[in-house]
Amino acid sequence: MDNLSGILNQHTFATVINHSGLLTGVKHFGDQGQLHLLQSGKVRLNRQGHRDLLMDRPSVVLLPKGQQHLLESIGDQPAKVISASVSFSIASSSLLVKALPDIVYLQVTPQCSLSCTVQWLFNEVFEQRLGKDIMINKLGEIFMLQVLRHATEKGSLHQGALAAINHPQLRKVIEAIHADPGQHWSLNELASIAAMSRSKFAESFKSLVGQTPNDYITDQRLAVAQKLLKRNKPVNYVAGEVGYEHGSALVRIFKKKLGVSPRQWLQQSRKGYSTATGAPAAGLAG
Known about the structure:
By secondary structure, the chain is an alpha+beta fold.
């Protein structure tokens, strides 16, 4: 499994389409993560405290960290736009969102690998076919994966785990952690994998990933634990799988990081609620 797949395979996110079709006038968006696709027309994206972004050709904007903003159609003709909310699980927020800048802007050219999915999405929006709503949301998830891959391959990410997989030394560490998050990794072992001194490794990892190695490992363990809990694995079993000797240790980590016990988190998850936002988390991928 490649490094990007190794990271994304452990984490969950949801995309839910909240606008599709022609955009006239102004549409406001809240503080949840948001993805916008412009097929034609011209729009202005306004974020308070930031310079406006003019989108006048097929393009994509991702605001992963959630910022209130607006889109305004400013061309002679209504713009064709698809917008989707993007939400992440708690562990994924720590690992994935930190890997992304506040805003990712990509132009979609005919040669771009994103263009086929964009065209498919808009075809679904403007055609009345069976399963349309499900298809659009699933395509939104696929498109989100493509955006993450495109940004990683182009070197557009400057911090976080996704940025680290382009680093010739730290990517080996990320790969090792994701292959066995339950391993009792020491700083010496990780520094050896990176072929760095302890101090140089600790400094480089914190600078690029945005977390200490220990915090990153803890978040990765949480992500794996959440997936196992959803498969109805007992807490003691899950604890052992992610590197803790007793279930009580996993309970302490959950309460420290998420504010709830593993069982409470699972109950909330099954009710369709995110402990991060308290909002419905339908359509979770992965």
